[in-house]
Amino acid sequence: MVFTPEGHRDLECSEYAARQQRVRRRMAQQELDVLLVTDPANLYYLTGYNAWSFYTAQILVLPCEGEPLMYMRHMDAHGAHRTAIGIRAERVIGYPEQIVHRPAIHPGDWVARHLRDAGYGRALRVGYEGDSHFFSIRMFMALSATLPEWQLQESRELVNWVRLVKSPFEVELMRAAGRVCSQAMRTAL
After folding, report:
1. Which end of the chain offers a freer environment for a tag, N or C, measured as fewer CB atoms within 10 Å?
2. Beta-bridge partner residues of 144
3. What is the pLDDT of residues 101-147, one digit of tens each?
4. For the whole model, what pTM was predicted?
């Protein structure tokens, strides 16, 4: 497999779509309607978005069927749609900067209300990344309080398990990286 610059973007788009489909199949096996992805590595794996402000709430809301949503601080949302592949700009939503790092309010409160307004305020089985360092207790509490219809369940590292099996695209990139590394070592020696 040889990658050309002009064909790379299309291949990248299909790769991210295939990754999301593999995750959705695993979600169906776990009987989840929605998955909340907060681990920066998993955000990158599923969308190509490099989580700039990983220390604040950033969530990919991946429904088993339908278009995903991404939530992040307002200043990051402006650029995220340019790097998040397969997510339309209007589906990348920035919460107000005034609620970042405030003791009386949490971005999770805003996100939960927005999700309710976006039609997610019904009985759903929602998986969350309980092992993610970036899914805070305050986020969990905000979602639980604002969306009590949700049955929140730990996803048991769902995306991480999908990531273990490499696609032909990923294998080729790993081989190309190995060739570059080998040439660099030969040159250094």
Report:
1. C
2. none
3. 999 999 999 999 999 999 999 999 999 999 999 999 999 999 999 99
4. 0.90
